[in-house]
Amino acid sequence: MLQDYLGKNLELLSARHKGTFNFIKIFLNQFKESDYIVSETKNASVTLSVNDSEGKSFLYHSRYNPEREALQIVEGCFKNETHAVVIGNGLGYSAELLLDRLPRLNYGSQLFIIEPDPFVFIASLKYRDLTKLLSDNRVVFYFGTDAAGISEQWSNALDWSVMEGLAVVEHQPTKSRFADFFVSLLGNMKHLANRSRGNLVTLMNVGSEFHTNNFMNLPEAFFLPGADRLFDKFKGIPAIVVAAGPSLDKNIDLLKKIKGRFPIIAVDTALRHMIANGIKPDIVCAADSSYENSLDFVGVEDETEVILAAELMTHPDIFKVFKGPKMLVSFGGGLFQQIASYREEIGSLICWGSVATTAFDLARKTGADPIIFVGLDLSFYDGRLHTKGSYSDDILYEKLHPFTSIENETSDYICERGHFQFMGANGKLIYTDTNMKAYKEWFEDAFVKTSAKIINATEGGIVDKSVERMKLSDTIEKYFDKGTDVRKILTEQIGLPVETNVTGLIESFENIRGKIAEFAKQIKLLLPICEKLLKKMETDNVTQFHGKEQECFATAMELHDRICDCAVIVPWFASLHTKFVTKHTSDVIRLRNSKDATNKKWLKVVMHLFSEFDSFANYQLPLVDNAMFELRKKCVKI
Length: 638
Hints:
Layout: H1 6-16, H2 18-28, E1 36-40, E2 46-51, E3 57-59, H3 66-77, E4 83-87, H4 93-101, E5 111-115, H5 118-127, H6 131-134, E6 139-143, H7 147-157, E7 166-170, H8 172-177, H9 179-221, E8 239-242, H10 248-251, H11 255-258, E9 264-267, H12 268-276, E10 283-286, H13 291-294, E11 307-311, H14 316-321, E12 326-329, H15 336-339, H16 355-365, E13 371-374, H17 391-398, H18 406-417, E14 420-423, E15 429-432, H19 434-448, E16 454-456, E17 468-469, H20 472-479, H21 486-495, H22 502-540, H23 547-564, H24 570-576, H25 578-592, H26 599-637
Parallel strand pairs: 4-5, 4-7, 5-6, 8-9, 8-13, 9-10, 10-11, 11-12, 13-16, 16-17
Antiparallel strand pairs: 1-2, 2-3, 14-15
């Protein structure tokens, strides 16, 4: 006799996974038992048979012993990884087994369940007690067949810094039903894994730069209007996205014809060349933390008719020297979580390695249609790196000496990196590098998911899929009458007062500062004691502590755990000490799962954390103090 668990499971789902609950509610009344047939198995469990729209039938689990079948699947895929992805959940047998085997980390999602058919999930809610899955905060659910969207959400939800291996469990009956989805999903996940590992390496190298820039820019940026104000304000209006590819030189003058009628959104690397040619974009996007990127604004700092759309991590020189109006954007990281509750919406945009992705996402979210690209070569078109006047030229000029030339330096750069070939529209081979090839693939995938028409008026380069190629002159002629008064819309939106609660923000910073200072104070007291304990273990060959020594060891362990569990401090700590936090997390996971975890090993790990945290506190406290001081000065002026 089948039992009905729907009410119980929905209650758990609503409590722990509100978004999933709201999504599943939409499909509940459409669920057909005749198409999703659940029946008892020989061992008194349940199995599922699905009849699709083409009349095909798919048996999802064994009719005899689905638990034993799931055990064989999991044992074949799981090799003691810290995270797992289940593609095709069925009735949840494999996911439950994985949950028992995954080590419990301090925080973060570890089991990602992807089910392309929401009705299969409804069947599992109705006929299986899913308490274990639905009540565990390590589990995340995704539904549907949007491979790119799901993989992007998965990548954002996964803490790559603590992952030590990812098990991928594919449910074969689901794969038979959704073969193309599986191929696309796994391809996207692999691509994102490579990107995220690259991002982690970037954080390890320049994470402190990102973090420091956030605090340096905050006193000004907090009071800026957000990009959210422009969302849906240009519905049905053509927009131009200007990237900095070499072909921009071809048609840059044509942009004068639509200035003021189409919003022109440019990347920072194109700004100097545009100004030199008498064209002022309406918005210029900046998102790079490096000093080198700030050079794109040298000589164009006084352009008061151009709006700077910048992220908090942008190099502070850009915020400092640019005299025109500014607008804040967010990529969702950095201090965004801290400041979001204390001001009006900022507006989240994508940054996928290149600021051109940000400019495109801004155009997309304004509601613009069509979105017209120029300068999006993503290749070494015409044997060049960028459009004229970019800081990349400045860097190459620095390499010149009497026995070389700018052409030789450019050629060497291309020969060293241009490993990929594409056929251009003119029938000639075009070379590109690994990064630009990835950007090409990202854009072409994003174009498919964009409701607006996408026109590539670059007249060069390698972006040719899911896009209409047109000459810029023809594009302007076709859509000219769809223009609007761009300046009027921008002035109205950017000029409105910004709603902020700066007092609340300062109070939240003071709270975090207090926690950091208190932890640092306790570390200064405990670290010398730990050093004595470790010395005693090494000289006297002691393996266990007793009495006061045991109390000191327990106190040190307890402080270590409180630091690691402090959700408001760990992100700041990890930003400044990414390499250490990544390794430390791995060391802790190993010790917690090891039978040979001695007091000596734990003591070394704890002391290393104390030492690093002390260094963190010495750097972080002046940083947050300065930010609070500047914020208070702004309050007085306001």
